[in-house]
Amino acid sequence: MDRLSALGGWAALGLLLLAACEQPGEAHTGRAVGRVDAVKMKRVSLKELCDVAPDPAEAFHWPKLTSPAQAQAGTKYRWVNVWATWCKPCVEELPLLTRSFSDWQKKQQPLTLTLLSVDSDAAAAQRFIAARPELPRSLLLEDASAATSWLSELGLGAGTVPVHVVLDAQDKLLCARSGAISAQDLERFHRALFP
Description:
Helix content is 39%, strand content 16%. It is built from seven helices and six strands; from the N terminus they run αααββαβαβαββα.
């Protein structure tokens, strides 16, 4: 009999812990909440994800480009991916970025992707993009040697690429982050932008 009462006590404790783990205001679905689901439920802020996240958003200044950055009508956010053909992590993450942004656009998410090449050889960057029709066209710096000072002005220090910049609909800076990005990072960014 003692074993049965001990088992009943453990079962009651388990139910109590399960109920305590539910999100406030959410009814228990009868389905166990796994680690992946728990991570998805956690609110994420841009401050957690970015090297620079001004609050409030501040004016963003484009570097001198070979052609102007077009306004993004009907979008809530613009993601600027600063990349180069000689940067292996930059090239490796381009398919992930284009696939993710394509999926989000299919779901009517007002978020656009803009590429900005810091290649000193503009023709090489243009050939790279032309050989990959799934990629959006890329903006080009007028003077690639200005990349370091421009990235430093963003607050990224030496500013190694890749760099990811998130702007709002008025082209105000919400976030700047240096370094390669993963699928998990993109999912966290998506949750921060579209809670």
